[in-house]
Automatic annotation (TrEMBL):
One of its GO terms (molecular function) is iron ion binding. InterPro entries: Haemerythrin, Haemerythrin_Fe_BS, Hemerythrin, Hemerythrin-like, Hemerythrin-like_sf, Hemerythrin_metal-bd. Keywords: Iron, Metal-binding. Fe cation 1 binds at H27, H57, E61, D114. Residues 19-120 form the Hemerythrin-like domain. This is Hemerythrin. Fe cation 2 binds at E61, H76, H80, H109, D114.
Amino acid sequence: MPGHHIPEPFCWDETFRVFYETLDNQHRGLFRSIFELQKHSDDGDQLCVMVAVMTAHFLVEEIIMKHSHYSDLGAHKHAHDDFIKHIKGLHTPVPASELNFCKDWLVNHIKDIDFKYKKQLSSYS
Ligand SMILES: [Fe+2]
Ligand SMILES: [Fe+2]
């Protein structure tokens, strides 16, 4: 399956909008964390920031899905957990192949997985 277009420079744009302001703002920050890590791939603090913002965002997203009784929560959380496990294993300097993996994962996760909850998160706006 061909993946979605990876923006270059790696920045959030309107095509990633899920129409929940908190989540869209967090997604914007996830793009920024990878963008900054690419600029400073030997900076351990920047790697920690990327892992931290991903972890925080996934928790928020999962809590909102849970409160909305969103039926696909289990599979969605599994995708988050797999990605977190992977990025927690990264070390500096983070190689370009891993940065590309992270970019690819984020773009395709938002557009293929997160997009499924559009208009489904009834308890939240
Ligand atoms: Fe997600
Ligand atoms: Fe997300």
